[in-house]
Amino acid sequence: MKTIEHSYGADLSWVENFAKQFGGKIEGNFIIMPEELQTGTRYFLDCGEGIIAYYVNVLYNKNFRFIQKNKNNDFVGLYYNLTEGEATVSSNSSVYDVGRWRYNLSVLDGSLETDYNVKAGSCTFALCIFIKKSMIAKFVKKNNIPLPDVDKITDPSKIPLSDLTE
């Protein structure tokens, strides 16, 4: 099993380190990986205004454990994952099967650490969108969306200590 410790984010600071962990490289907006590890496409795009799209369409040729420890927690990740094969995601003590016929849509705060385990022979088709929390707050306020706790949701430092201990 190959273990990759990496981070994501709503900027492109994570891309080069992610590719290097595989022994891969960046060509334009593509992350090119050695074929003995996986075949297929990994593509990233800076959509502007604190939004990054990451597209994955790969066949894993080896078992992988992806440990996600984000360097910044200023974003939310939306993960739409249609894996065919064996894949799980875990955080703390919870483990979920992911893929086309299981959990296939996740919304995760950038502060969470997760493990994604995938078996050789599995095909992953996924779209990940990373959005800065500040952009979510701006959007909510600009569009008069009635979300009174948007500041607490997008800036954990604004949560009163009493709310954390209840």
What does this structure look like?
The protein is an alpha+beta fold and 166 residues long. The protein has a single domain, classed as Jelly Rolls (Sandwich), CATH 2.60.120. It has four helices and twelve strands, in the order E-H-E-E-E-E-E-E-E-E-E-E-E-H-H-H. The strands form three sheets. Strands 1-6-11-8-9 form a five-stranded mixed β-sheet. The chain has a five-stranded antiparallel β-sheet with strand order 4-5-12-7-10. A hairpin with a 2-residue loop joins strand 4 and strand 5.
Strand and helix layout:
Blueprint: E1 2-6, H1 15-22, E2 25-27, E3 30-32, E4 38-48, E5 51-60, E6 64-68, E7 75-81, E8 87-91, E9 94-97, E10 105-109, E11 114-118, E12 123-132, H2 133-142, H3 150-154, H4 161-165
Parallel strand pairs: 1-6
Antiparallel strand pairs: 2-3, 4-5, 5-12, 6-11, 7-10, 7-12, 8-9, 8-11
- Supply the CATH superfamily name: Jelly Rolls
Main beta-sheet annotation: 5 strands, mixed
Determine the strand fraction and express it as a percent band. 35-45%
Give the overall shape: globular
Short description:
By secondary structure, the protein is α+β, with helices and mostly antiparallel strands. It has helices at residues 15-22, 133-142, 150-154, 161-165; strands at 2-6, 25-27, 30-32, 38-48, 51-60, 64-68, 75-81, 87-91, 94-97, 105-109, 114-118, 123-132.
